[in-house]
Specification:
alpha/beta, globular
């Protein structure tokens, strides 16, 4: 490797798996160069979360990062980790700093049939990673008042819209926002990813109800597509398709897959979990954050597998699925190879992915997949045994 990957270590069981993958499947085969950042909750607390900011800046510098799953602390984690404060989601911080769009794609293997059997090709969910309910302001309000939406421009002029008169009782209000430049970045990231992967791009909002907010998304997407991407899409033989979100859901269920479904922030959060579950397992879902200027950060779509970690601490063997974390590494290595012109590194990433899929299709798998697989001769193995089985098949191709 010429240029290092930015390596972001994480928490709990995925941190254990992270080291196993490096020890068993990466370092024996490649000259792995990384700039290491420990995003484990202990170190984030020690650095007042500065390490997260540093890792995002390093990702901007080097262009490719690979991230382990991390804890976003809740109230229960405060005493467990003796935290100074309830630190923000590292993923949220990194997404905001990179102005990135999250693309999540299922990993398909023989023997695991999606709950929707017509889905023979993967559906990639593109999630806008800024604003909406994730940067909301909300209030619980007593009866007898009026809620208003107020905007004061730079010259002090005030515009108002009444939200609701709370004459009949108390209630709740919420304020959302988004920015044109972030929506535009989201659109370009989706169109670029469509061109890179030669897949159609679908986008959906509820613009018939939200005639300004959601309609603004629709308009920006259409303007950018018409002005910057239509000719490129035509040349690539792919299309951009817009519809209402409820129509999109119906079309997705009836489809064969094989496209990118662009969603607003909340829609993408929900639909990515729905798609992952329908394909079989969140542990078989890749995730990549792509910035408008071509910076990539790869990770697994799932969390830190807390339950298995507590069993691991007791000395018990766990059968934790490592595939999505493994594919985060292969995705980052392949992208590093593409950017640096390293054909051997790209080939290694391909071979490691094929060895992983071959292992599962040979019937060797962790417990979660064994419960889903229709293969007749299945062997349920623990976390380390699965990686060693992948290594046996990788050795045959190197």
């Amino acid at each position: 490797m010429k240029t290092p990957l930015v390596e972001m270590d994480g928490d709990e069981m995925t941190r254990i798996i992270w080291k196993m993958i490096k020890d068993i499947l990466l370092e024996p085969y490649i000259d792995l160069k990384t700039e290491y950042y420990d995003l484990g909750l202990v170190h984030r607390n020690e650095t007042n979360d500065q390490v997260t900011i540093d890792s995002a800046n390093a990702t901007k510098k080097y262009g490719v990062a690979v991230k382990c799953a991390t804890i976003t602390p809740n109230a229960a984690r405060m005493p467990e980790y003796n935290l100074k404060e309830m630190w923000k989601s590292p993923n949220g911080t990194i997404r905001a700093m990179l102005d990135g769009t999250v693309f999540r794609t299922p990993i398909l293997v023989k023997g695991i049939t999606p709950y929707i059997p017509t889905w023979t090709k993967p559906i990639t969910i593109a999630r806008h990673a800024y604003g909406d309910v994730y940067k909301n302001v909300e209030m619980q309000v007593p009866a007898g008042g009026r809620a208003e939406l107020v905007y004061t421009d730079k010259d002090g002029n005030v515009s108002k819209e009444t939200i609701h008169e709370f004459t009949e009782g108390p209630g709740i209000i919420q304020g959302l926002h988004n920015r044109d430049d972030s929506i535009a970045s989201f659109a370009r990231a989706c169109f670029n990813f469509g061109l890179d992967t030669k897949q159609d791009v679908w986008f959906a909002t509820k613009d018939t109800i939200s005639k300004k907010y959601d309609h603004r998304f629709k308009d920006i997407f259409q303007e950018i597509f018409d002005n910057e991407y239509k000719e490129k899409f035509d040349a690539a033989g792919i299309e951009y398709f817009y519809t209402l979100i409820d129509d999109a859901v119906a079309r997705v269920i009836r489809s064969n897959g094989g496209y990118i479904w662009a969603c607003k922030n909340y829609d993408g959060d929900v639909m990515s979990d729905m798609v992952a579950t329908a394909y079989g397992s969140l542990a078989m879902m890749t995730s990549v954050l792509v910035s408008p200027d071509g910076v990539y950060e790869y990770e697994a779509a799932h969390g830190t597998v807390q339950r298995h970690y507590y069993r691991h601490l007791k000395g018990e063997k766990t059968s934790t699925n490592s595939v999505a974390t493994l594919f985060a590494w292969t995705g980052a290595l392949r992208k590093r190879g593409e950017l640096d012109g390293l054909e051997e590194l790209k080939a290694f990433a391909d071979k490691l992915e094929k060895a992983t899929i071959q292992t599962i299709e040979d019937g060797v798998m962790t417990g979660d997949l064994a419960a889903l697989s229709t293969l007749e001769n299945k062997q349920t193995v623990n976390t380390e045994e699965f990686l060693l089985a992948v290594n046996e098949r990788l050795k045959e191709t190197i």
